[in-house]
Amino acid sequence: MKRKTAKTTKTQKTMTGAQALIKCLENHGVEYIFGLPGGSVIPIFDAIYESKIKTILVRHEQGATHMADGYARATGKVGVALVTSGPGATNTVTGIMTAMMDSVPLVVLTGQTISPMLGKDAFQEADIAGISMPVVKHSYLVKDINSIPRIIKEAFYIASTGRPGPVLIDLPKDMTAGAFTGSLDQPMDLPGYSIPGKGNKTDILQLAKMLKQSRKPMLLVGHGAVISGADKVVRELAEKMHCPVTMTLLGKGAFPETHPLSLGMLGMHGTAFANKALTACDLICSIGSRWDDRINGNNDEFCIGAKKIHIDIDPAEINKIVRPDLSIIGDAKLVLEELLKHVEKLDTAEWLRELEFYKTEFPLNYSNAEGLTAQCVIDTLYKVTKGKAVVTTDVGQHQMWAAQFYKTEHGRDWLSSGGAGTMGFGFPAAIGAQFGRPGELVVAIVGDGGFQMTLCELATAAINKQPVKVVVIDNKYLGMVRQWQELFFDNRLSGVDLVGNPDFVKLAEAYGIKGFHIDKVEDCSRVLEEAMKHPGPALIHAEVIKEGNVFPMIPAGKSAYHMIIEAPKVKMEKPTGST
């Protein structure tokens, strides 16, 4: 009897690897784990059962990573996903790549077969560490149960510092089911990992001097400024210097788009006046932007004659595309705070008058003469919400129209898949954002194509009573591909007609979600107002004209000098770059 009592006492004191894992996640302030269980992660889900961390059961593992991503982007915290081994793990790769391309802090926990079976093609075994290697910031395969606390601490640190990114932790089942006998408080061991900070002061002083000498400067603000929380100092800098500001797709909100100095988004489908400024400036200062091919389709023709400055926390981005006249490696916020001390009002009066002319001559516009347009729906949504929603998007025409017409005031209010261009991102990302920012209005603007890739997460929104609003822009085409086929391939439409789209209102109602429908201009404002006021999740099915095109447009492989303001009257040559 005494031996039995002793054994019971010992069991109560013994902690499994899974319990140690969950304790470590609690210590890192994790609120939610987005995931889907399977055999190899049952010990972890069992440990969560008694944890204060809430598990959000998704309907597909891709949805789990996108929700964790949306949570991370909307809050600045690390998002966490948990999936099983094999196909469960491989289903996360799209979400991991999306986070990697856009520098989003994620920790993705994957189950794995037991250690003795590794490499033997066991049931649901996949080398997820190897498969995901090109699209993670770092990865771990746990081989020692007692190393779990150190690995978790390192993973969160790596994911959230410097240039953020996803970290994958692969957990063999014997590592989570076995006995943990180590310490929960272990030091990190990252001797080769360093984080750039304030930047070189001599270079910052040189930048101040170059700005003073400029007559047509512009600031190019990217996602790095959002990540660093540089919103306030970007505005102070622009206002102090009287310097115009343009933003990348993911830089939206790092500077208020309603500000008089704002030029909005630049690039392939940016505002005409931002792209006009790009061709006329004498200095461009990139703050946390990669100079990627969406804004720089032809490096030889990019800002000809202008001085180019690059501020970035990632040394790998310096000289990768543009060879700047000056580069500063450091945290955007810290660099700009120092720069702010050394700049003064610039002589930009004539430059700003020139830009006002461009704004007047080349405004964003649309016509509903042929019926309800996507632009009208998004513009009306902006007015109905007064620009105060957290907006997520999918990828395609609706994404570009949303970037143009839904002006963003704050950096973490705009969540969109940039580098990866992931269809299916917008809706689950909105659910994650809603978990991260309860009580705020979160709206997903999605296309009829992308939405159908992850619409099963309607169940997740309904069950968890997350009041996400989903605006489905339904033109019954894969619109961006159709636009390219029309403009560059003699309108030979191939594989783009989405015949067979469901009745999205009935679909929403099948999940217990309120559905709304718009197909007329005169109903747009009233229906959107009603939908935004609905207390629970809601879907707005907006049937718009089928063949609307996004303009302005810079053809792939071309520079801003070749911008198209409206539909061309002559046949265009096939583009040399990607969509």
Helix and strand arrangement:
Blueprint: H1 2-13, E1 15-16, H2 17-27, E2 32-36, H3 42-48, E3 54-57, H4 61-75, E4 79-83, H5 87-90, H6 93-101, E5 106-112, H7 128-131, E6 138-141, H8 148-160, E7 166-172, H9 173-177, E8 179-180, H10 201-213, E9 217-221, H11 223-227, H12 231-241, E10 245-247, E11 262-265, H13 272-280, E12 283-287, E13 307-312, E14 326-329, H14 332-340, H15 349-361, H16 374-385, E15 390-393, H17 397-405, E16 414-415, H18 426-436, E17 442-447, H19 448-454, H20 458-463, E18 469-474, H21 479-488, H22 504-510, E19 514-518, H23 521-533, E20 538-543
Parallel strand pairs: 2-3, 2-4, 4-5, 5-7, 6-7, 9-10, 9-12, 10-11, 12-13, 13-14, 15-16, 15-17, 17-18, 18-20, 19-20
Antiparallel strand pairs: 1-8
Helix pairs in contact: 2-3, 2-8, 4-6, 4-18, 12-14, 13-15, 16-17, 16-23
Written description of the protein model:
- This protein folds into 3 domains: 14-180, Thiamin diphosphate (ThDP)-binding fold, Pyr/PP domains (Rossmann fold, 3-Layer(aba) Sandwich); 201-361, TPP-binding domain (Rossmann fold); 374-551, Thiamin diphosphate (ThDP)-binding fold, Pyr/PP domains (Rossmann fold, 3-Layer(aba) Sandwich).
- It is built from 23 helices and 20 strands.
- The protein has a 6-stranded parallel beta sheet with strand order 3-2-4-5-7-6, sandwiched between helices. A 6-stranded parallel beta sheet has the order 11-10-9-12-13-14, with helices on both faces. A 6-stranded parallel beta sheet has the order 16-15-17-18-20-19, sandwiched between helices.
- The radius of gyration is 25 Å and the shape is globular.
- Mean pLDDT is 95; it is low at 1-12.
